[in-house]
Amino acid sequence: MHCPFCRHPDSRVVDTRSSDDGLSIRRRRQCPKCDRRFTTTESASLLVVKRSGVVEPFSRDKVIEGVKKACQGRPVTDADLATVAQSVEEAIRATGVSQIDANDIGLAVLPPLRELDEVAYLRFASVYQAFESLEDFESAIEGLRRDHETQGAAE
Ligand SMILES: [Zn+2]
């Protein structure tokens, strides 16, 4: 989101509000370069279809709630959780869909959570991907190990 005053390419969200009809989101943003504030209005047409068939607007807070449980006892801050939720929303919006299954949100959580904390990632994955046995954990851990080795080799 470019600053409309100095065209700085980045901005910080200082306040987020849903409109009364829930169809748009107004964000107060502040430019880190010139410190001026401006407001953007974004479409809130990202809907979540729950298993029960109920449709509700996408909520970062709910993503955070879901991820928080997996992060218990881990060195993860509220800011980290907010970053994960933001990545999830951006990843979903980038696909251009206006509606997503609640279960697919869980899958969108996995990549940023994996970046953040691998133990929390395994906990979360075990729930969302319905791990049923030790083998499921072993193959997920094996996947992490393989990536470590590839990363190590690339350095
Ligand atoms: Zn600016």
TrEMBL record:
Record-stated family: Belongs to the NrdR family.
HAMAP family named among the record's database cross-references: NrdR
Obligatory cofactor(s): Zn(2+)
Record carries keyword Transferase: no
Any one Gene Ontology BP term: negative regulation of DNA-templated transcription
Name assigned to this protein: Transcriptional repressor NrdR
ATP-cone domain mapped to chain residues: 46-136
Keyword annotations: ATP-binding, DNA-binding, Metal-binding, Nucleotide-binding, Repressor, Transcription, Transcription regulation, Zinc, Zinc-finger
MF (Gene Ontology): ATP binding; DNA binding; zinc ion binding
PANTHER family: TRANSCRIPTIONAL REPRESSOR NRDR
Cofactor-binding details, from the entry: Binds 1 zinc ion.
Functional note: Negatively regulates transcription of bacterial ribonucleotide reductase nrd genes and operons by binding to NrdR-boxes.
Zinc finger annotations (unnamed) as residue ranges: 3-34
A UniProt-annotated Pfam family: Zn_ribbon_NrdR
Zinc recorded as keyword: yes
InterPro entries the UniProt entry points to: ATP-cone_dom, NrdR-like_N, RNR_NrdR-like
